[in-house]
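2024-03-11 09:14:02 INFO worker-7 job=invfold-0412 stage=load source=structure_tokens
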């Protein structure tokens, strides 16, 4: 209240990991980078100040229960979004400014952007020590305590 213009709209890009550092910032508490490795306070955006969060990353190293999503990682940087599928290493690149629905893969026609974003994604995974999926083999066993579906 008193910091943001009523009925205003922001086009700042934020993600779930940004809420914790934002709350710390709002409470004038120190940042705790070990607890929010890739979160960034968006207080400047709330004050209608210049704010560029930088790249936003996603890491989804497992299958979903609805069958529509396989293990992948993604990066949004500027108006581009790159998705890398872990099973086969394919990538898709979308221009969200002109294709918000992600229907037109432009990876082949924008190889420099694709290469740059893929490197940024890989560097981020290394930096946060993201755990990667590994192939199931005949001798694979579930992790201790894992819930395993019983055959019917």
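2024-03-11 09:14:09 INFO worker-7 stage=emit residues=152
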């Amino acid at each position: 209240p008193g910091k943001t213009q009523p009925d205003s709209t922001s086009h700042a890009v934020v993600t779930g990991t940004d809420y914790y550092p934002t709350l710390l910032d709002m409470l004038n508490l120190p940042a705790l980078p070990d607890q929010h490795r890739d979160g960034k306070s968006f207080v400047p955006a709330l004050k209608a100040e210049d704010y560029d969060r930088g790249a936003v990353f996603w890491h989804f190293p497992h299958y979903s229960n609805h069958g529509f999503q396989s293990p992948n990682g993604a990066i949004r940087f500027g108006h581009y979004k790159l998705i890398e599928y872990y099973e086969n290493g394919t990538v898709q690149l979308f221009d969200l400014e002109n294709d918000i629905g992600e229907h037109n893969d432009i990876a082949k026609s924008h190889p420099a952007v694709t290469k740059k974003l893929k490197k940024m994604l890989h560097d981020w995974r290394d930096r946060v020590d993201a755990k990667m999926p590994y192939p199931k083999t005949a001798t694979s066993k579930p992790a201790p305590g894992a819930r395993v579906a019983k055959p019917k």
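2024-03-11 09:14:09 INFO worker-7 stage=report msg="The longest helix spans residues 111-128."
2024-03-11 09:14:10 INFO worker-7 job finished
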